[in-house]
Predict the structure.
Amino acid sequence: MKKTLVLSIVLSLAIVMTSLPMMGCDSKFVINEADKKTLQNLPSQFQIQAQAWQKLQEYYVDSKALDPTKISQGAVRGMVEGVGDPYTDYYTPQEFQSTMIQLTGVFTGIGATIEKKNNYIIIVAPISDSPAEKAGLKPGDYILKINGESTENMNSDVASQKIRGQSGTTVTLSIGREGVKEPFDVTLTRQEIKMDSVKLEMRGDVAYIKIAQFITPTGDDFRAALNKALSSGAKGIILDLRNNPGGILTQAVDVSSQFLTRGIVVKVVDKNGTESVQRVQAGGVATDIPLIVLINAGSASASEIVAGALHDNERAKLAGIKSFGKASVQNIVKLDDGSAMKITTAHYYTPNGTLISGKGLTPDYPTDLLGDNLTIWAQGYLDHVIAGEPVVAPPAPAPVTASK
């Protein structure tokens, strides 16, 4: 989903806007015959909404203050939450505009991507050099309270609105972290954040390229970085997708295609079981150069598509920690009043047909190495590959022991 966060909108693997006729400021809508038929065929259970509105007008002590817009928006939000899918959401017109801004990579907030998990809000990934990262927030941290308000059963987009605010103001989050016995509070100062989605660094003859998120300019920026790396004499590439919460599907396909000559990037299966595929686009500029991909628990959605495509097409090995495991596709559909719904419309599978939902991608080289330590190992890995020498696996993860 920027203001405070790249928030839950990390969101869409695909963004398909279906624009319905926008009416004037008097908020009256022209209902076409298809809409009339839909309304007439509503399940009988929906009659309770009209009855509830009638009773509010009849009994509420300050009935003149009843706001039909706010109440109807609350009803739709409740309807969406009743679906029980953490990725299906409702946006008011203001929230929708904010969501679209998020995809440009410029926003005001704390700089973290969130999702709903286990009835609470979880941090998928903090953005590099953001207030969230500087405060030490980590992927997998639970946001238990926002300014003292519990997030239990809270919609992720509602949470994002509560966390957002003007630059220079503060927000206090109560954090629950695995391995830490008691929740703790973190107060962050919101700021304007401009997220550069692609970062290039030459390390000798190895190019280190990090993609922070798949936003509108990512494909173009990534091709530019690749061409610069190759012209600088790069003989190997480290593609760092750690803490990348995802983004726009087309950008993920574009990035994957730079390393592949042919094949499938991702398979998508809709509610009817119909399968469609996103294929490799022609014109990749780095189809032969040695490659290693870094992932962790903050790698989700579109970043998992890229990692899965390169892995299943036997183009690259994965190193790091098992990824987040988000394998659903969301479309954004506009409603007549300028609001919108983000609806899960399909599941995606890696090219080999693996559904990673809730499981994530398992790295070929699992390791607890963090930050630059893993990057240093990856550089050594590529040095061995380039020289035709046997590679050395990174230290294996520490065994998990049950606490007494």
